[in-house]
Amino acid sequence: MLMLMVESADDPAIGKIELILEKLAIPSPPISVCRPRLLDALWQSLNSATSTVISGRTGTGKTTLALHFAELCGRYIAWYKVDAPETELRIFLHYLLATISKQRSKFGTGPLRRLLDTIRWDRTRSNGELMMLAEAFVHELESSPGPPLLIVIEDLHLVSDADWIVPFFKRLLPLLPADVHMLITSRTIPPAPLWRMRSKQTLSVIDDDMLAFTRSEAAELFASYDLTREQAAIAFDHSHGRAASLASLAATLHYAETADSRTGLPDTARVT
């Protein structure tokens, strides 16, 4: 496991943080069909809002959709996979700084770094301090020239109970510069104060209902496995359009039919 040590310039003994570099790597996309309906929604959000939340239960295809869009959007990608220990804002921000600095080398070397080094992290931050951090984050983005950027924060729900989430993102998202878009995946819908940003053209949301496969998308997925529309229709009814269930059923059927063809079994003996 590759690690990166980050230290506070003012007090290295207190400020040491070990970052797991794998959490900043773009995952390998699973085998899946592209879904133009959802990609169009993401393109529209990219052009009209500062941020997007893809919200859905486990297995609804959130990460797969984010990966497909990251490949197609034409922007440099800063990816951050969140884990539960990052409920501490200092750790969360250091991960964000590390992934963005991979694409914009000067990001995190200016006032924001100094602010992170001087804040007292052993006490609860006020809303004013959180807003100041968000504003410093935006100022650092604006002061760090580079290519258009897509910042992907995967699994934000793992820190959704942190007291800083709402005030920090409520201030950050409306201020993001035009060449930076934030794409967040989460198993939960955004908290109410962030949800209301939808009406202000700051935030777009792709939810569970939108993530569910349509019958035609299920048929396309099954066709990619050389399976029939009838098999896709049965699987769709069984899975209620849930991405992971459909993909698992398609792979299982494909494997069974391939195995049958190798052993010379008649068609009537194959799984349908």
Descriptive notes:
By secondary structure, the protein is α/β, with parallel strands linked by helices. It folds into two domains: 23-211, 3-Layer(aba) Sandwich (Rossmann fold), CATH 3.40.50; 215-269. 46% of the residues lie in helices and 13% in strands. The chain is built from twelve helices and seven strands. A five-stranded parallel sheet has the order 4-5-6-3-7, sandwiched between helices. Strand 5, helix 7 (165-175) and strand 6 form a beta-alpha-beta unit. The longest helix has 21 residues, at 243-263. It is elongated and about 70 Å long. The two termini are 43 Å apart. 37% of the residues are buried.
Judging from the principal axes of the Cα atoms, what is the shape? elongated
Q: What's the end-to-end separation, in Å? A: 43 Å
CATH topology of the largest domain: Rossmann fold
Sheet/helix structural class: alpha/beta
Number of strand elements: 7
For the record, the CATH class of the largest domain is Alpha Beta
* Rg calc: 22 Å
Note the beta-strand portion: 5-15%
Number of domains: 2
- Mean of residue pLDDT? 87
Q: Largest beta sheet, briefly?
A: 5 strands, parallel
CATH architecture of the largest domain: 3-Layer(aba) Sandwich
Question: Regions with pLDDT < 50 over 5+ consecutive residues?
Answer: 8-14, 265-272
Helix content: 40-55%
Name of the CATH homologous superfamily of the largest domain: P-loop containing nucleotide triphosphate hydrolases
Number of helices: 12
* Spatial order of the strands forming the largest sheet: 4-5-6-3-7
String of helices and strands: EHEHEHEHHHEHEHEHHHH
